[in-house]
Amino acid sequence: MTDILDNGNVLSQKDPSDALGIIASQYEQATFVAEVLNAEHDDREISNVIITGMGGSALAALLVKVLLQSKLPVSLEIIRGYDLPAYVNTHTLVIASSYSGNTEETQSALSQAIAKGAQIGILASGGALVETAVEKGIAYATLPTGTQPRMATLNSLQGLLALLENFGVINHDLSEEVAGLSDWLGQESAKWAPDSPLESNYAKQLAHELVGKSPVFYGGALTAPLAYKWKISWNETAKNLAFWNEFPEFNHNEFMGWTSHPVEKPFAVIDLISSFEHPRIKTRFELSDRLLSGKRPKALTINLQGESLLAQLLWGAILADFSSTYTAVLNGVDPTPVYLIEKLKEELAN
Predict the structure, then answer these.
(1) Cystine design at 129: which of 16, 65, 101, 260 (Cβ 3.0–4.6 Å)?
(2) Identified catalytic residue from 105, 188, 236, 277
(3) What pTM value is reported for the model?
(4) Is 208 a catalytic residue?
(5) Is 236 labeled as catalytic in the residue annotation?
(6) What is the span of the domain harbouring residue 174?
(7) Does residue 214 sit in the same domain as residue 154?
(8) Among residues 45, 199, 252, 346, which one is catalytic?
(9) How does residue 265 score in pLDDT terms, banded at 50, 70 and 90?
(10) CATH number of the domain to which 174 belongs
């Protein structure tokens, strides 16, 4: 009997907005060239950078922070909320990131940045943020429309890098490295596409392994943003409760949380492992799984593929989108819309 995830008719019915098709071409976003408009600025010294955004719009910022932490000449902080820190001043670069351009928390932070005289960049597909940029002559880059923010990670990454380059915080190297991965990511994505059968399709296999459970995704210092990405994908795409945490912090608290109650907990434990991770963090993953044997489900290890940390993070992000979408099909839900989030926004606007 054909597996449900190998049945094209079922996939078409359960995925009417063709999320799988969007994800299958997501690798093309790696070559997205974001044009910065109102690009001219006064060359003031930038002493720190703040990126403000929520959910999927904050994900690219988290990736940038990990990828550039050993190279950035200034501090970088990510704000996921309404308010900026008191230290923001004219030498702070504030980048307001919102895929829709209408996220109220991001609009609030942007208003504060303007009031404090900060250097400002805006990243959005349109909406109120772009209107503000045009009205006030603020530097901005627009994102392509037509997809969900969580499925536009590479577009957002390239847009964010373009803004950082525009203000002289970084050079063009990382953006070029992202673009150079497009073909390889396309080859990897083809292995997870709907026409690739279950027996050789890792994304479909993961969906079958995790369906019916609440996954807990764990990353290390380098892969924490990816663990967060997997949680986002499971929450919004699969409409499935999921959690995330990172090592080594896990060992100082949550580690003990697994030690009581039966092992038959309704969870799945997933460790996202990078070959570039700190050796002691790799050891912590291994020891934690051994010491918690019999106290929680055995961890399912996903060894990230790629010859660089960037490659591994992007590989893992696309795999998250595929596997969560297949899980949505198994859950019997439409992977694309997030009706309750939109309803909440409507209620808040009243």
Answers:
(1) 101
(2) 236
(3) 0.96
(4) no
(5) yes
(6) 24-180
(7) no
(8) 252
(9) confident
(10) 3.40.50.10490
